[in-house]
């Protein structure tokens, strides 16, 4: 199939696993930043992955015409900031008592989310079977 995906479900799994691993690493490091026991890194990473699906799936379907454009990426910035702030509220600082730290942590890991897109999307295409005739 020229310029198509033979197994898009495998590509989606590769994307999700890449994000899950990256978010588990983030959870471990954020726990250290907040001086919390990092033993729940998997639960926190999985929660962040689920938050990403819950926010990302509707966003992608809402903005499909702009998919791949700078507008799409710009829209991801506030969305990902909100996702990370939500995670911080759920596991580290429920009332956001230290807003400066919460914003710094959210900004750092929002950038991490974009960096994770690179191997995640590459995995989607490699494992999904993308090829051009």
The biggest sheet amounts to:
none
Radius of gyration: 16 Å
Helix content: over 70%
Q: Give the number of helices.
A: 4
- Silhouette: globular
Average pLDDT confidence is 86
Please give the oligomerization state of what you see: single chain
Q: How widely separated are the two ends?
A: 8 Å
Poorly predicted segments: none
Number of strands: 0
Please report which band the strand proportion falls in: under 5%, 5-15%, 15-25%, 25-35%, 35-45% or over 45%.
under 5%
Q: Secondary-structure element order, as H and E? A: HHHH
Instruction: Please identify the structural class as seen in this structure.
Output: mainly alpha
In short:
Helices cover about 75% and strands about 0% of the residues.
Verbal overview:
This protein is mainly alpha-helical. It is globular. The longest helix is centred in the last third of the chain and has 30 residues, at 99-128. Helices cover 75% and strands 0% of the residues.
């Amino acid at each position: 199939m020229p310029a198509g995906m033979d197994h898009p479900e495998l590509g989606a799994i590769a994307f999700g696993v890449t994000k899950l691993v990256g978010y588990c690493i983030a959870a471990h490091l954020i726990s250290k930043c907040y001086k919390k026991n990092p033993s729940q890194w998997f639960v926190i990473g999985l929660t962040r992955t689920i938050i990403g699906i819950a926010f990302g799936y509707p966003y992608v379907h809402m903005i499909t015409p702009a998919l791949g454009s700078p507008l799409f990426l710009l829209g991801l910035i506030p969305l990902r900031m909100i996702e990370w702030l939500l995670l911080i509220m759920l596991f580290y600082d429920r009332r956001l008592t230290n807003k400066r730290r919460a914003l710094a942590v959210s900004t750092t890991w929002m950038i991490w989310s974009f960096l994770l897109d690179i191997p995640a999307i590459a995995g989607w295409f490699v494992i999904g079977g993308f090829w051009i005739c």
